[in-house]
Amino acid sequence: MANRRDSRIEPSFEGPSQTRSSAGLSVSEEDRVVPSNRKASAKRKSSKAKSSRGGRGRSRRGLFGVLGRLFYWCFVLAIWGGIAVAGVVIYYGAKMPAATTWSIPDRAPNIKIVSADGQLLANRGMSGGEAVGLHEMSPYIPEAVIAIEDRRFYSHFGVDPIGLSRAMVTNLLGGHFSQGGSTLTQQLAKNLFLKPDRTLERKVQEVLLALWLEHKHTKDQILEMYLNRVYFGSGAFGVEAASRRYFGKSARDVTLSEAALLAGLLKAPSRLSPARDPKAAEERSQLVLAAMREEGKISEKELKTALSAPATRSPSYWTGSENYVADTIMEELPDLIGDVRGDIVIDSTVDLNLQKLAEKSIRRLIDDSGKKLNVTQGALVSIDDSGAVRAMVGGYDYSTSQFDRASEARRQPGSAFKPFVYMAALEAGRTPDSVRNDAPIKIGNWTPDNYGGKYFGKVTLATALAKSLNSVAAQLTMEVGPNAVVEAAHRMGIQSDLQANTSIALGTSEVTPLELTSAYVPFANGGYKPDIHFIRRITTADGKVLYDSAGGSAPRVVKPEIVGMMNSMMTGTVEIGTAKKAAFAWPSAGKTGTSQNSRDAWFVGYTANLTTGVWFGNDDGTAMKKVTGGALPAQAWHEFMVAAHEGVPVRPLPGTWKSTPADTIVPDDIPSADNNQVAPVPSASVGQQAPSAPAQPPAPARVARPAQTVDADGFNMPSDDGATASVGHPVPPGSVGGPLKKRQTSILDILGGG
Length: 754
What we know:
Layout: H1 2-6, E1 18-20, E2 26-28, H2 33-94, E3 111-114, E4 120-124, H3 140-149, H4 161-174, H5 184-193, H6 200-216, H7 219-229, H8 239-247, H9 256-265, H10 278-294, H11 300-307, H12 322-337, E5 344-348, H13 352-373, E6 377-384, E7 389-393, H14 418-427, E8 435-438, E9 457-460, H15 461-466, H16 470-480, H17 482-492, H18 513-525, E10 535-540, E11 545-548, H19 560-575, E12 589-594, E13 600-606, E14 610-617, H20 632-644, H21 747-751
Parallel strand pairs: 3-5
Antiparallel strand pairs: 1-2, 3-4, 5-10, 6-7, 6-14, 8-9, 10-11, 12-13, 13-14
């Protein structure tokens, strides 16, 4: 028992932290199993809790640190970026002139050409159209342009950060440049001052100039300048030029669908032009209409109406024959006023209604008969007694060929040149009743055959001219000499060089339709040669007169009695001769002409009101199919002159001449039958016999043609004695053309049947 008591473990009271074991060893409280595990666990939990709280704090502090550092460096980079941008701006800005010297450059001058009654013929100059105020143009135009090009135009300060950012994002996402961030103000700045280079320098300068424009001008002023200068394709700068170019109307009258088309062109003017790709232009205009609807500029009804409008199709070039006139005027302009420094208005002499009539007639005849007769081109010129050109058509279609056949193409006039031969003969003493023998004749190696090989024997000069007999014209040229014929033609108005040879009788020297027609004018006005002109007056846009033709007098170039005889003879061409298709209710005269193998066909005719010349042929000189001056040219002349004289009081042709009775007609300069001398029938110079066909009797006696010397509706004509000399033009003496006296008979007279 004792041992058992001794073996018990007694609690020790030696201290609170120690006990005694059966072996007598002392164990610390920390070494005890149960108490020690609890404390260690508590310590571990406490340590973990502290570690967790510290980790979360460190995590939060690390995130904010990263963001803070990112913000810091972004801020630093922004500062340096701003400094860099400022440096670039300062650098490129320093290369520009001082802002105090900046000014809006003048718009390229517009040359507005109007008809005699004030209708627009054409606009010329770099702009191609006059400037139109924002309040004058169709309101759809600015609305369409703003909707598709710069929706925040009225709210930004010249540069649109929102639009620029949107464009950058779109271009980055798309992987290519598809949108631009330039505002209308920036585009105007570029157009006014800069080259279209895609460089950083140009972009910086563009921004600076845009800010300057916004500071100096109102939004409406900027928009107006933009619309009057921007390029719309096909050579049209500004809305007025574009409207005329594509729609044939002023920008004041443009419809909604047309305005959308114009606005759509600004993205790519050349590629989207309706003259080049009507389908692409139409598709682009639909996008513009959708943008206008989205912006609330138009209603749903207006949108549907505009979308249903037919696509605009424009010719590839300016069309209308009046453009031939405009081109000619532009060539003359520098000689009249020098360099054009501002907008001007040119009052032309052309009657637009007559111009359209002439164009319609030429085109209709070629459309109807061109393929059948191998005719592709025609020209018409009409001039009044004062020398004012009232109409000029230079070809079938100006849009396909701008070459002016009326004023630039030199062609052989054929028999249309014969009036100058006959005039020279009359001035040398012949009369319309003089008789020549129409028969084959050989001059050197040349045999001037009549058309169709027909000969009429003895005929008067009046009949020979009316029937356009080649042999008689050649005889007269031999009698008076080629030089006299050349002199007469130049005196009347022919300007081209003429070959002084016998073949000139048949019009082998080339002339233009304009100069040939002008050379007939003295026959129509009583013998005076006026200055041929297209321009009546030139003024600035505000009405200051720069040039005024002021009329003036014209020199007399042919005597009244010669005019009377020529008009009497050429009246026969229309009444009984080769131009019977030209006859109408007015007294008229003229001459047909056909060059070899029908390469050229002419008719130049006149009344006391107008002188009109018509030509048909082909540019390459290929022959037509038996087309003569009495066919297509006479028909076109008839159509034009009938319309031109509608409602105009009838006037007789100038000059008087009375024919000798038929039974007393005696060949001039030939001994009479009383002397038992008879003029032989002309034969070949080597003795060939004349045909045996019976000679035709002389033409019946002509009645006296009452006529008068006209004053060209107030055009100041000098008196016959030259007392009223013209301004800048000497008046020839009254004996111009030589005296009317008979020459001595020569061997040529005998050979010629005279």
